[in-house]
Amino acid sequence: MGFLDRLWRGRETDFDSGNAATNAIELTKRHSQVSLTKQGAATGHLRINLAWRMRTSDLSGSQRESLLRHPLRALKPPEVLGHSQSMVNVDLDLGCLYELQDGAKGVVQPLGGFFGDINAAPYVKLSGDDRFGSASGETIYINLDQRDAIKRLLVFAYIYDQTPAFDRTQAIVTLYPSNGPRIEISLDERHPQARSCAVVMIENVKGEILVRREVKFVYGFQGELDRLYGWGLQWGRGYKAKAER
């Protein structure tokens, strides 16, 4: 493990479950579930953000040299290093499969322009489509004031029309409840050929809102995630309008 990788790993250890210093809960394989209801956070708008940065092992020589000269820069927030198109040719998208208590099913995602609605069914809204990896990443909002109408939500990430690169990016999905600590899920497993990843399941179980880490990588797209979780939707090839910078 290189020096810079140890620095990044050092940052990651800041996100231990219940760490008061960062006011964050990290969902891991060992500690994979948290109840928003028990934390008093099952109301208001739940914000879910996807952000990513390039792995330090994939930095160019000049970027690596700069960090070696100034190692403390590696400890700054992820957006300082950035994740621009010039650094890594990847377009990570955030989406959500939803199933409501009345049986309605569908998807909220940039592809096809299915941006959802926060005040009407499905009570899930995508804020926009980040094509180039800006510091703000992509964000989904869930209206938990309508939690009684929600059965289950599967939040996922996928790579749109680019070479698979989950192994070259350090992606993190962060949930910001209306109350209590944020919840972090790192997509740090090495799956170089994967194009999609089921990140987190949010379920209404007998009135209790549970958040469960999934982090299951697949080599296909949304249709494969659908089959994995039994959603039963019909899928076709979709495209985005040409992006303007």
Mean pLDDT across residues: 77
For the largest beta-sheet, the strand count, sense and barrel status come to:
7 strands, mixed
Q: Label the structural class.
A: mainly beta
The coarse overall form would be: globular
End-to-end C-alpha gap: 37 Å
Proportion of residues in helical segments: 10-25%
Strand order of the largest sheet: 1-11-10-3-8-7-6
Rg calc: 18 Å
Name the helix and strand elements from N-terminus to C-terminus, one letter apiece.
Answer: HEEEHHEEEEEEEEEEH
Number of helices: 4
Q: Estimate the strand proportion.
A: 25-35%
Poorly predicted runs:
1-21, 59-64, 70-88, 129-135, 240-245
Number of strands: 13
In short:
With 245 residues, this protein is mostly beta strands.
Write up this protein:
- With 245 residues, this protein is mostly beta strands.
- Helices cover 13% and strands 35% of the residues.
- It has helices at 3-12, 61-69, 78-81, 222-229; strands at residues 24-26, 33-35, 45-54, 92-100, 105-108, 116-117, 124-126, 138-143, 150-159, 169-176, 182-187, 196-205, 208-218.
- Strands 1-11-10-3-8-7-6 form a seven-stranded mixed beta sheet.
- Strand 4 and strand 5 form a beta hairpin.
- The chain is globular.
- Mean pLDDT is 77; it is low at 1-21, 59-64, 70-88, 129-135 and 240-245.
